[in-house]
Amino acid sequence: MTSPSGIPSSPTGTQYQLTAPGGGVTARVTEVGAALRGLDVGGVPVVAPYPASMPTPAASGIVLVPWPNRVRDGRWSQRGETYQLAITEPKFHNASHGLLRFAAYRAVEKVPERLTLAADVFPQSGYPFHLATEVTYAVSDAGLTVTHRIDNVGEQDAPVALGTHPYLTLGDVPASELTLHSPADSRYVTDDRMLPIDLQPVDAATDIRQPRTLSELALDTVYTDLHRDADGIARTTLTAADGGRVTLWQGEGFDFRVLYLNADYPGRDVAIAVEPMTAPTDALNSGTGLRWLEPGEAWTLTWGIEYTAG
Q1: What is the pTM of this model?
Q2: d(CA 300, CA 173)
């Protein structure tokens, strides 16, 4: 059985392929979770792929909305009201990664170099708000630009946060030959359920303000106080010994970043998730980074990936 695009069907739904006008940059995106499942530049994979026959592994490339990461016990309170979400992370008894992780997005625009997928967050138990969401993937000779839009189409103010979960790679270069640079001054300390208990300066284990070899790190860490360049962009780079470099950039509003080293990613000795986020873990309770959208208000955010050959 094949999808409408002619690509064999998959547990992640329809598979969309985008190609830049010059032909040197291609991206693959899934219907389920609007996930970025691959990005190749000049034939070099810079987003870690996985077999089309398997469901999305470890949240690879999905959109996280209306909250990223975890909500303690699925229970949250804001503005004098308390809500109970379904527990979707039984191991730690949390609600995890929003409400559209396994949703089927619909394509509202598809041209060779650009794809817009849309899905609504409908009012439901634990989140009685109505959002219309879109994500646009656009490839060019420079790489990939991703634009998110969230519209409050309900009748009351809606609390919103957003993140995404791509895994970076540089072809088949092993972790021992890759360096990571992701400058930020602060990180969240977590308990045994991966929930924040303190915000502290980065320490010896988590400080990546100078490049460090990927194989020496063990990370599942939320960072903030990100360093931004003169253009206002926060950047994380993964660099090979030959100078080849993949950069994930975060635009305005993405004031948090998760770095997660996954030693069980299919087909890789290690893969690193670099996750732009607008809020930290458990933001529905803390309110940190949480954006309240008024009825009729929209919020637009951008991030992207670039590659430079060695």
Answers
A1: 0.95
A2: 35
Contact 39, 49 (CB under 8 A): no
CA of 206: how far to CAs of 189, 277, 281, in Å? 11, 18, 17
Q: Which residue intervals of the chain are DSSP H helices?
A: 283-286
Separation in Å, CA 239 to CA 27, 244, 245, 271, 307: 20, 6, 4, 14, 10
CB atoms under 10 Å from CB of 198, counted, come to 9
| Residues 250/303, Cβ–Cβ less than 8 Å | yes
Is the alpha carbon torsion for 117, 122, 124, 129 positive or negative?
A: positive
Q: Could you report the per-residue pLDDT of 86-140, keeping only the tens digit for each?
A: 999 999 999 999 999 999 999 999 999 999 999 999 999 999 999 999 999 999 9
Tally: H helices and E strands in the chain: 1, 27
Please, what sign has the CA dihedral across residues 235, 240, 241, 245? negative
How far apart CA 166 and CA 43 sit, in angstroms, is: 18
Residue 108: burial class (beta carbons within 10 Å; 0-12, 13-18, 19+): exposed
Pairing of strands 291-293, 131-140: unpaired
Task: Specify the DSSP class assigned to residue 173.
Answer: -
